[in-house]
Structures are given as C-alpha cells and as structure tokens.
Design the sequence.
C-alpha cells in the first residue's frame, strides 16, 4: 500500500473540507492543543449559512474564530468537556455550555453515544512511514471519537510533537476521509507557571514531607500542584514514577532533576503515563518522540482500578473551596462556572485504595475579592449553587498553609475541628460559631 499516494488523493483545502458540514450536525473540534486552526477559520467563514450546529471540544488554548462571530449563538452551540478561561468567558455570551461528566468516562461515552459526531476534525502530527497520524499530547478520548464519526478530517501540523505511548494515540490514513495541511502554527503554550508564593511553598512542604521514595505522582492543574512539583525537583526524593491525567511542566523539571525513573512502579514500569499534556515549549520538546513517556487514553489513565493497582500512589489536586462537612468544590464560584469535574474524583478514590497511597486536596486558606475583601475558602456550607466535585465521604488529606489534616473516617465534629484548625486564624471563631449552629461542634472542642 502506497501511503503517500493515498495521502495525495485525500489532501484538500480547509475551505473544501468544511463543505461537508451541514446544519444540525454534531462536530468534534479536537482537544486542547489539538483543536483545529485552519479548519476553524474556514468554518467561521461558512458558519453564517449554517444553523443548529453542535460542537464538542475543551480546554481551549486560544479563542476560535467561530467564537468571534457577532451572532454566534444563532448558528452553533459549544459543548465543553472541560473549560479554560476562554470557555468561561463564552458562557456569558450564550453559546457555550459545560457537559458534566467524569473525564475518565469520555471514551466510553463516545462509543455508546446516541449523538456521535458526524464530523470529527483535529490537528495531528504529520503522517509517519507506516501511515499513522499521531494525536500529539492529546490521546485522551480522540481514538474513541474517531471510531464513531462518519467523517474524519485531519489537519496536519508539522509542529505537533509525536507523543509515543501505549495505545490509541493516533489514527491510520485508511480511516481518514480528508487531509488538510494547515498553516503549521506553533503549538500553543500555557505560559510559564506563575512564581510560587509563600502560601504555595508552605502547602507544598506539608505534602512533600508525606511522599516516600518510589512514589507514583499525579499532579492536577494549578499553581499549588506545580509548586509541589518544584519542591519535589529540589528534594532528596528518588525513583519516583508518573501516572497522571495531565502532563505539566513540573514533571519535566522533576525528570530533569533525576528524580523520575519509574523503576518502583507496580504497573507500566519505567513509563510516565498521561492522557494529555499542556504547558510551555519545554514540555512539548520533552514529550516529542520520548519513549519514556506513554500517551494513553483517559479511560486508562483515570481508571480508578488502574490507579489503585499502583503502589504508593500520590494524588495532588487543588480546589475552589470546602465546607465544614468536607465537601469539595473544584468547579464553580456559586453558580458561576469555572472548570469541570475532570478526573479529580477518580484520583482521590484511586489513590486512597492504592497500597501506601495518599490523596491530597490543597488550597490557600483565603482569597481576596476584587473589592479587596479577604474571605475564607473554608466555609460553613458551600455557597448556593456551588458544585460538589468530591463528596464528604471521599476526602483523604486536606492542606492549607496552616497545616495538613486527614479527614478520612472522622465524624462530623472531628472533621469540623480538623478543618477549622487549618483555616486562617482570623476566621476560626466565626467558623466555630457556625459549626455550633449546625450541631457539628462539641462543647469540649478546643476554641
């Protein structure tokens, strides 16, 4: 089979490719750094003649051209699997909506969906000698999406890193309907992590002290998990492993500091396993053609039973706020949408079930509003409309700059006491008073 000849036959322009899209279609736009670029521009030109288009995607790295249409909401709806700041802003414009689902469920959802995509289009690395287009750092759910799509359009980007792995990290040309050679934009970067604060460093130290040699790490999105990663890179820890949802810059730093070997992993020994990656050019260069790094679908990376099978699994995630019952909100500010469920709960549960494993939820004890008011992130109850990402029964360790507490198995009064002990001192008396009103405070508790 001459793959190059087949390539020529399927090669077309972005403008021609989007002509297959019809009003009423469900379309997939790729994922994170694999979101289409040239095809997006072409569809933006065509969109005014279309209506009732439903598009799925997530973690947008730049504003799509279709978002810039004046009457976008009259032509399409963006259905986000997980939101970036770009999608949060689009919610207020009336055409962007979050689709609540555990991230680990996406491949299965596609394969059993009653509304599969008619068209799937995404950026991929150039075809290799065996006829495969690599998904780059976006294995995630893309193979499952392609399995059920009627039409598959690959937008080739020469700058997309080839991310090797286990399985479901690419698509063969025989399964592709059209190929578009885009403008080869640089893979979008999230930018270097913000400098760590004293609060970040205090939280990180509590967590790093709990990590043993040979542990397997998962780091969530955000400043605090990255701060933990930076401290790990400077620590004396050794023979660490990686099994994570999102591969972030901190893992590169830890690996280059010689801390990651993966030799103690009880599964995928020697491999750094991840579902998708996003960060700076340093990260993309590290993942490119790196056989140590294993790009895999999210129903494997985030499978609770897989996580639990890895000894000494350490899960580190952050959140928006927590109430005195131990309910974690990592998705909203009241009814204002921020993010999504992602894989946090899978890692919280899986890490706890791991032999020697620990799950950490970390946050600063307070935040400052736009008008300068300081508020506690530890609340008597979650704000009206706030989403419960992790239920009170699931939390293991909780960390602020004022300490670390293990909430697993504690009764309601013990839990309230533990959480108040790591709250900002200025809010502790107020929280005690509220706990008393809710009958989760014993008179013998320390004030």
Sequence:
């Amino acid at each position: 089979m001459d793959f190059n000849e087949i390539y020529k036959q399927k090669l077309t322009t972005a403008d021609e490719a989007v002509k297959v899209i019809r009003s009423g279609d469900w379309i997939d736009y790729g994922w994170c750094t694999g979101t289409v670029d040239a095809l997006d521009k072409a569809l933006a030109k065509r969109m005014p003649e279309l209506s009732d288009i439903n598009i799925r995607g997530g973690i947008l790295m730049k504003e799509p051209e279709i978002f810039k249409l004046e009457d976008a909401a009259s032509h399409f709806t963006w259905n986000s699997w997980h939101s970036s700041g770009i999608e949060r802003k689009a919610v207020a414009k009336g055409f962007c909506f979050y689709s609540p689902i555990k991230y680990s469920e996406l491949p299965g959802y596609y394969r059993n969906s009653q509304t599969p995509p008619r068209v799937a289009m995404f950026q991929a690395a150039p075809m290799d000698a065996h006829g495969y287009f690599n998904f780059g750092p976006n294995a995630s759910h893309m193979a499952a999406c392609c399995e059920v799509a009627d039409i598959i359009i690959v937008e080739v980007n020469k700058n997309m890193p080839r991310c090797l792995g286990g399985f479901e990290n690419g698509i063969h040309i025989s399964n592709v309907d059209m190929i578009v050679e885009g403008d080869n934009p640089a893979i979008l970067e999230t930018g270097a992590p913000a400098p760590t604060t004293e609060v970040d460093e205090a939280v990180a130290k509590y967590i790093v002290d709990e990590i043993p040699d040979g542990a397997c790490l998962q780091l969530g999105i955000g400043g605090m998990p990255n701060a933990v990663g930076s401290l790990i890179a400077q620590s004396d820890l050794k023979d660490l492993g990686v099994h994570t949802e999102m591969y972030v810059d901190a893992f590169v730093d830890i690996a280059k500091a010689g801390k990651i070997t993966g030799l103690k992993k009880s599964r995928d020994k020697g491999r750094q396993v991840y579902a998708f990656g996003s960060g700076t050019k340093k990260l993309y260069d590290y993942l490119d053609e790196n056989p140590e790094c294993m790009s895999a679908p999210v129903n494997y990376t985030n499978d609770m039973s897989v996580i639990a099978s890895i000894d000494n699994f350490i899960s580190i995630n952050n959140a928006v706020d927590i109430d005195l019952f131990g309910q974690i909100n990592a998705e909203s500010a009241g009814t204002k949408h921020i993010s999504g469920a992602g894989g946090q709960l899978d890692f919280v549960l899986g890490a706890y079930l791991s032999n020697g494993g620990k799950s950490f939820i970390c946050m600063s004890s307070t935040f400052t509003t736009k008008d300068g008011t300081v508020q506690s992130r530890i609340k008597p109850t979650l704000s009206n409309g706030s989403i419960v990402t992790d239920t009170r029964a699931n939390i293991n360790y909780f960390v602020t700059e004022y300490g670390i507490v293990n909430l697993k198995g504690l009764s309601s009064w013990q839990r309230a006491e533990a959480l108040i002990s790591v709250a900002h001192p200025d809010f502790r008396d107020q929280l005690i008073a509220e706990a008393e009103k809710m009958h989760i405070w014993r008179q013998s508790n320390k004030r």
In short: The chain has a mean pLDDT of 94. The chain has two domains: 3-181, 198-437.
